[in-house]
Design a protein that fits this description.
343 residues, alpha+beta, Arc Repressor Mutant, subunit A, five-stranded antiparallel sheet, 36% helix, elongated
Length: 343
C-alpha cells in the first residue's frame, strides 16, 4: 500500500469517526484504534495529528475540514455538523481538466463504451461544461432530473472496499418495521442501483440468508468483524437480482416466469424504445389497439408498482399477478374509505 493511498484511507477513517453521530466526540485514542482496526497497523499520535492538520489546512487536499477539539468532551467534532470530506467541491481548474478528458474519450472511444458509461459521461459533461453560448438565456442544452439528495452514498467507497476484501461488517441499520436503528452483521456481496436508489446485497449473519439493504437506511458502519469467517454460500443468488428482476424485492414464493401484459397503442412506441427489462419481447402485435408483451422475470414488488402506475394503459395478462394487482387496489380503496390515513 502506497503512503498516499494509506494516508487517504486514514483521512476517510478520521472523517467517519468525527461524523459518527451515534458516537460523537471521538478521542485521539478512538481514532488511532479505528485506523489500526481498519488498516491493520498501529499509528502514532503524531501521525494522526498531522493527518488532522492536513485535513484542516492542506490546500492541495482542499478538504478544509472544520475540525475542532472539545476539552469538555475530550474529543473531536465538526463545527459544521453536515460536513463530510465526500462532499468536497471540485475547483474550476479540476472541472475543466476532467471535462476535456471526457470529451476526448467520447471522440476516441465512443464505439467501445457501454450505454451506461455513455449516460454517466453525458451527466458529467453537463455538470462540468455548461454551454457558454447560452449564458444570456441561462438555459443548458440538456438537463438530467435527479433526486435533490440521495442519502447513504457516503458509505459507498467503504462498502466497495469491504466487498473487494470480503470482510464481515457490523452496522446500524434503520428498521422500517421497528421504526428504529438496529445493529446487524452483514457479509457484503454487491452494491446494486435501481431507480436512482442504491442497495447492498449481502448475507445476513442473523437470518442466515441473502438480504437486501437500502443504502439510505445504513446509518453507521461500525467496524470490520475479523472474528467471523466470511460466508460466500449465498453469493450466486446475487445473479438473479442482476438478470432476472425488475426491482430488488421479489414477491414471496415467486419463481422466474413469463409475465405477459397488454399495452395500449398510444404508448406502444415508448415500450419499444424503453424496454421494461432486457428479456422483453413482443408476443402479439396483430390487434388494432393493443400489443401483447412478455418479460421473463421473477415478479417483484417494484414490478407490481410499475403496473399500478400505468393502469389504463397497461393490463396484466398473467392471472396470478393480475389478482395481486386487484387485491392491492381493493386494499387501497378500503384504506381510504375507512379513513386509514386520518390522524
Amino acid at each position: 500500500m502506497s503512503l498516499n493511498k494509506e494516508a487517504y484511507i486514514r483521512y476517510k477513517i478520521i472523517d467517519a469517526c468525527i461524523a459518527n453521530k451515534r458516537k460523537p466526540f471521538p478521542s485521539m485514542q478512538d481514532i488511532m484504534d479505528a485506523c489500526e482496526e481498519r488498516i491493520g497497523k498501529t499509528f502514532t499520535v503524531s501521525t494522526i495529528q498531522k493527518d488532522i492538520k492536513a485535513m484542516k489546512e492542506d490546500e492541495q487536499l482542499n478538504f478544509l475540514a472544520p475540525i475542532k477539539y472539545s476539552k469538555s468532551n475530550d474529543g473531536y467534532y465538526y463545527s459544521d455538523p453536515e460536513y463530510t470530506i465526500d462532499n468536497i467541491p471540485l475547483s474550476s481548474d479540476e472541472k475543466e481538466i476532467i471535462a476535456k478528458e471526457l470529451e476526448f474519450l467520447s471522440v476516441t472511444s465512443d464505439k467501445s463504451l457501454s450505454d451506461e458509461f455513455k449516460g454517466a459521461q453525458i451527466k458529467l459533461l453537463q455538470f462540468l461544461s455548461p454551454d457558454n453560448n447560452l449564458k444570456k438565456e441561462k438555459i443548458p442544452l440538456s438537463v438530467t432530473q435527479t433526486p435533490p439528495k440521495r442519502l447513504g452514498l457516503y458509505n459507498y467507497n467503504f462498502l466497495i472496499d469491504h466487498i473487494k476484501k470480503r470482510e464481515v461488517i457490523e452496522m446500524a441499520y434503520f428498521s422500517m418495521e421497528l421504526q428504529e436503528p438496529i445493529d446487524i452483521i452483514v457479509h457484503p456481496y454487491q452494491l446494486l442501483e435501481f431507480d436512482h436508489r442504491w442497495y447492498l446485497l449481502g448475507y445476513s449473519q442473523e437470518e442466515k440468508k441473502l438480504k437486501v439493504y437500502g443504502l439510505d437506511r445504513v446509518l453507521v458502519i461500525f467496524w470490520v468483524n475479523k472474528k467471523i469467517k466470511f460466508n460466500d454460500s449465498k453469493r450466486k443468488e446475487v445473479i438473479k437480482y442482476n438478470k432476472d428482476m425488475y426491482g430488488v424485492y421479489p414477491l414471496p414464493g415467486e419463481k422466474k416466469q413469463y409475465v405477459c401484459f397488454y399495452v395500449a397503442k398510444n404508448i406502444d412506441h415508448i415500450m419499444q424504445t424503453n424496454p421494461l427489462h432486457s428479456s422483453q419481447k413482443i408476443i402479439d402485435k396483430s390487434h388494432e389497439f393493443i400489443t401483447l408483451y412478455g418479460i421473463n422475470v421473477i415478479p417483484t414488488h417494484e414490478l407490481l408498482q410499475w403496473f399500478l402506475a400505468h393502469l389504463g394503459k397497461v393490463k396484466l395478462a398473467s392471472p396470478m399477478l393480475a389478482f395481486e394487482i386487484a387485491r392491492k387496489l381493493n386494499q387501497f380503496q378500503e384504506d381510504y374509505t375507512k379513513g386509514y390515513f386520518d390522524k
